[in-house]
Specification:
about 80 residues, alpha+beta, 4-stranded antiparallel sheet, about 25% helix, about 35% strand
Length: about 80
């Protein structure tokens, strides 16, 4: 994770993040088809057997990524 804009704890070893991701991280998560630049919404897990990240989506712009962070702050 290069540029973390926001991180939100979900409990039970899970978190949701809005951040830029490295090319290798995207490839390893199966989300390489989304491109390598920009900001992504993803879940991370520290649960044994489920460690890693799951990319949920990609923000259309930096402004959209910041709006996602604002929305997640409300929860």
């Amino acid at each position: 994770m290069d540029d973390i804009l926001g991180s939100f704890d979900l409990g039970s070893g899970r978190s949701v993040h809005v951040a830029a991701l490295a090319r290798d991280t995207l490839a390893g998560s199966g989300a390489e088809h989304l491109g390598h630049q920009g900001y992504f919404l993803f879940e991370s897990s520290d649960v044994p057997g489920e460690k890693g990240i799951n990319v949920l989506g990609k923000a259309a712009s930096f402004e959209a990524a910041m709006r996602l962070v604002d929305v997640l702050k409300l929860t």
